[in-house]
Amino acid sequence: MTVLAAAGVDAAASAPAPNLTPARRSPSWAWAGLIPFAAYVLLFLALPTVLAIGSGFFTRSGAFTWDNIAALGEPLILTTFANSAGLSLFTALIGAVVGALVCYALLGTRADGLVRSSVDAAAGVLAQFGGVMLAFAFIATIGIQGVVTLLLKNSFGIDIFAAGTWLYELPGLILPYIFFQIPLMVITFMPALSALKPQWVEANLTLGGTSASFWLRIGIPVLAPSFLASLLLLFANAFSSYATAAALASQGSQIVPLQIRSALTSETVLGRENLAGALALGMIVIVGAVMVAYSAIQRRASRWQA
Amino acid sequence: MNRLGPSRVTRTVIGVVVGAFFAIPLLSTVLYTFRMPDGTYSGARWLGLFDAHTVATAKPIWTGLGNSLVLCLVTVAIVLLLLAPTMVLVNLRFPQLRRAFEFTVLLPISIPAIVLVVGLAPIYLQIGRALGTGTWTLAFAYGITVLPFAYRSIQASIDAVDLKTLAEAARSLGAGWPTTVLRVLAPNLRPGLLAASLIAVAVVLGEFTIASLLNRQVFQTAMVVVQKQDPYLPAIFTLLALLFCFLLLLAIGRAARGPRKDRP
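Output (structure tokens, whole complex):
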């Protein structure tokens, strides 16, 4: 879901601002037209965000406390954040590298050809295909009764769950996460790769360069910022993702979103009342920092995509 | 054709390996719905989708789907009647607010749904008291999650037409503002409005986090409920939803491109 919008940031930011003359009529009543939308955004975007972040600083009876925030330092919570960060970083790295390889392979196809447009369409669907349904697909594939599980067991005598049913635990999230990270990478990285100008290849060849020297000295340096930006976007995408994990890991709270679920649905975690707020604050700090870095790098990267 | 591209062999290897990674779970899900407990394959589950027994098991899914469709309608209404007019107003009368507006509507990308739901819980407690606990009220929250995608589609259409000149032409020919917006501006923005509506439908049908944690029954939460009794039904609905999502995105692609004659 981050995909379309992320591309939107660039599209909108790079669009030339129209030189509109100031409105001739007095804007006295026109301001009123902005009120409904402003009220809506305040009530359903600003207020929930403030409540989510703020609630961690209060007890249920409304007294100010540092207790919930202090809980972020508890070993259990630190482990959860480390799990989330590790899972997100690992799947983002694999997704970014494989996704970039797919983009590289697509360079060899015609820009308006059937292959390119089919892969684009498939990436669009599969990047949206997160959540609960993705968990079902993987349960059908490598669940205990999954098609691949049974095939391996019956035909080759390999029991993929010999070491325990890892699909419903933290390692089980890796494959489903990679499944939605690769298409997201294809969507966000392809514009950068197709912006490499054929003239640069020709200039490199004319000056006696080889294909290897092109990639080492021109291609990779030009693409590095875009690659890094996409990597950050993939990290934020995995870090924020909840539904797939919720459907697969029905017990336990191995990652931060699942810990928020326990904090919201049960009364207390670690004996604290508003821990969900503190966890939300921790998440928003991390995702916020990653997204700020993303847009800073993306701005620099878009220089080459004019 | 691009000279930067890899050789045909490299291309094929990458295509086959990555393609297999995506094809295997999808094909397995298809096979899974056809495989019977005794190891044989039959289409009984698909053919029996509307049997009395199956319908009873799948009842939460149908209820959830009904709720989700209502949510789609209300969310699309928010996009078309609240977001779109505000965007037209900002672009026509308050161009100085464009940057701030853009920042605001793109903000939901950086706020994970799981964080938003922590703050939405107390708000929905109040909404429940005021408007009842009907599922449709979730659309207010969904409108926010759809905001960045809908904004992008509509803004692309706004950038493609000269809104200012169109509005001035209509006004100077004597049209009032309602006529100008409905009969001049809206038809010109139709590709963007259509794409925004379709994206809203896709997002709402796939939403799980907010509905699940606010205890509302929608399509996705119902699938999790049913999965505990019958793991095959959700697999079938997953395949159907995936197909629907593909068709929807195809339609969005068409809508975003618009009729050929509209191209400059």
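Confidence is low (pLDDT under 50) at residues 1-23 of chain A.
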